[in-house]
Amino acid sequence: MFVFGNFLIAIARVLQIVLNIAMWIIVIQALLSWVNPDPYNPIVRFLYGVSDPVLRPIRRRLPVYSAGFDLSPIVAILIIIFLQHFLVVYLLTMGNSLR
């Protein structure tokens, strides 16, 4: 069980890093949407390409576009924070209990 506990801890740490990166990409993409960047810039295309698959289902399911502001990044960040505090902490707890 020692190996499985360490495996769960490693998964939790990697998931935490991935969720942090996803959150920062969404924040940067939301900030870039205010300044109207060049759509042919490779960095801008990467940011939109990575964040749109996350934001598109939120935009489609929830009426989060109010008064000209797109609130889907806020909803996505709240979901990421929930996953960090629920799933990552749960995996860490399970991994530590199996050690």
Question: How would you describe the overall organization of this protein?
Answer:
By secondary structure, the chain is mainly alpha-helical. The chain has one domain (2-63, 78-97). 81% of the residues lie in helices and 4% in strands. The protein contains three helices and two strands, in the order ααββα. The protein has helices at 2-35, 42-61, 72-97; strands at residues 65-66, 69-70. The chain has a two-stranded antiparallel ribbon. A hairpin with a 2-residue loop joins β1 and β2 (69-70). α1 (2-35) packs across α2, α1 packs antiparallel against α3 (72-97) and α2 packs across α3. The radius of gyration is 17 Å and the shape is elongated.
Helix content: over 70%
The string of secondary-structure elements, in order, is HHEEH
Separation of the first and last Cα atoms: 7 Å
Overall radius of gyration: 17 Å
Strand adjacency order, main sheet: 1-2
Average pLDDT: 91
Got a strand count? 2
Proportion of residues in β-strands = under 5%
Unreliable residue runs: none
Number of helices: 3
How many structural units, i.e. domains? 1
Oligomer: single chain
User: Per the principal axes of the C-alpha atoms, what is the gross shape?
Assistant: elongated
What structural class should be given to the helix and strand makeup? mainly alpha
